[in-house]
């Protein structure tokens, strides 16, 4: 299992790396809170995600809600195929702000 982390890349881009799982999501949510508060528009690059489960998707939904609450634009970039497959099964791909980089 790879340690998950969020790495800021400039003012409006966050790179997520590692495994998004039940175990890593709470810490990632805490790491993201101040980053969401400071940026106007957020691009979240998921290309560094190695593995994800449903908790990882729940984190993305929470980030989407937080961005709406703060009236900020959010784009999810480079979602890994495994994660996108999970999103499609539950039709979350239709509501998540997915974009290509």
TrEMBL record:
- CDD domains assigned to the protein according to its UniProt record, in alphabetical order: STAS_anti-anti-sigma_factors
Check the UniProt entry and state the signal peptide residues, or none: none
Q: What SUPFAM superfamilies would the database entry show?
A: SpoIIaa-like (SSF52091)
Q: Superkingdom of the source?
A: Bacteria
Cross-referenced PROSITE patterns, in alphabetical order? STAS (PS50801)
Q: Where is the STAS domain?
A: 14-101
Q: Name one Pfam family in it.
A: STAS_2
- Could you tell me what this protein is called? Anti-anti-sigma regulatory factor
What organism is listed for this UniProt entry? Thiohalobacter thiocyanaticus
């Amino acid at each position: 299992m790879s340690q998950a982390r969020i790495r800021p890349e400039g003012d409006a881009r966050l790179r997520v790396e590692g495994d998004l799982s039940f175990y890593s999501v709470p810490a990632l949510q805490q790491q993201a809170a101040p980053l969401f508060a400071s940026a106007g528009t957020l691009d979240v690059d998921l290309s560094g995600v190695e593995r994800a489960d449903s908790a990882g998707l729940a984190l993305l939904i929470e980030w989407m809600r937080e961005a709406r609450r703060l009236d900020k634009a959010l784009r999810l970039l480079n979602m890994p195929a495994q994660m996108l497959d999970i999103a499609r099964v539950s039709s979350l791909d239709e509501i998540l702000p997915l974009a290509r980089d």
